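Q: Sequence in, structure out?
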Amino acid sequence: MDKYRSLGAFFAQSSFWEFALNMFLTALLAALLGRLYVRYGRSLSNRRAMARNFVLLAMTTMLVITIVRSSLALSLGLIGALSIVRFRSAVKEPEELVYLFLAIAIGLGLGAGQRLVVLVAFLVIAIVVVARAILSSLDRDDVESGGGYLALSSSSPGDIYMENIYDALDDAGVEWKVRRIDNTPDSLEVVFRTGPVPDGVFDSLMRDLRKLDKNVKISFMEHLDGIGA
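A: Exactly. Output:
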């Protein structure tokens, strides 16, 4: 009987159509957030794969907040449940965390019934994201478009030094800009944003880099023209 009373209390406080509207808005805004991330994000990971999670994450958050907001007991139960759950994911870049938090914030706001606040905030954030991408593309210090991303990884970080990598790029006449460095006692991963690299120069550059560390792993990803691509 208590379960039926709780269910009745839920529908008494929040009608089914209000819940459906909030759920639809959550899915819509999360999908738009995913499009923003894919189009204007600067993360080097697979942005499309990450963006696919936004809708489910936001809708799940919205559902949980809608359920627990009407019951103190359920709220306390949620705290207890979260204390035994451990979330682990391969999130390496701060931008990925920012977009995940935005998806969660959408679910939190609409789960709490704050539709106007969420819509206005999302519009402002979208404008900021687009404006930042446009200004970044106009930055004169940015590497010339038409290049790509050069990723180096070594399992012997003590045998290869960043200064030597920089010298090899400069000697090859390649424009470069460091995008990410992950340095641990057991590995070194570096990602460069480069300008155009001719085939002949690329071959000589690979030989020079392998002289620094014969086991270094090298990958080059072509940059797609367009803001934030």
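The helical segments are 2-13, 16-40, 47-68, 72-82, 94-111, 115-137, 162-171, 199-212.
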